[in-house]
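User: Can you predict the 3D structure of Lipocalin-like domain-containing protein? Sequence below.
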Amino acid sequence: MNLSTQDNPLIGTWKLSSVTAILPDGKIEPEAFGANPTGYITYTPEGKMMVIFSRGDRPPLSGNARSTLSKAIHSVPIEERAQAFTTFNAYAGRYTINENTVTHHVEVASMPNRIGQNLTRVFTLDGNRIKLKTPPSKSDDVPKIFELIWERVEIE
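Assistant: Sure. Here are the predicted structure tokens for Lipocalin-like domain-containing protein:
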């Protein structure tokens, strides 16, 4: 599967600008992933995608840990490692498009429970911006729809 941007307007890299939650009563949580979330999503012509994003206010870990592959990571208090895990999200795999819906077929993920899952998003394009909207999912025992706004990264 090799697509051009005319066949597939999602192709390219997009930078995260906001994450909003919509509650069942219509109320909006404008900073659902913190005030300044950061991240990127990339869709390739070969049908692969990857997304990585985090809260913008993540504190650095204490100690000397520079990599999760290093033994030094185990010297960081478990609470700090847990906070780092819960403020970060990443996954990758194949994707398919059907009209204005994109489905991410997860092959690798920071949250192991997502591996093998199909994550469906409704997308809306507006110039160099894309809005990805999740189906309702339970968050803090309340079904929420998450809306992520991404801006196309221009090639320099």
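The helical segments are 78-86. The mean pLDDT is 92.
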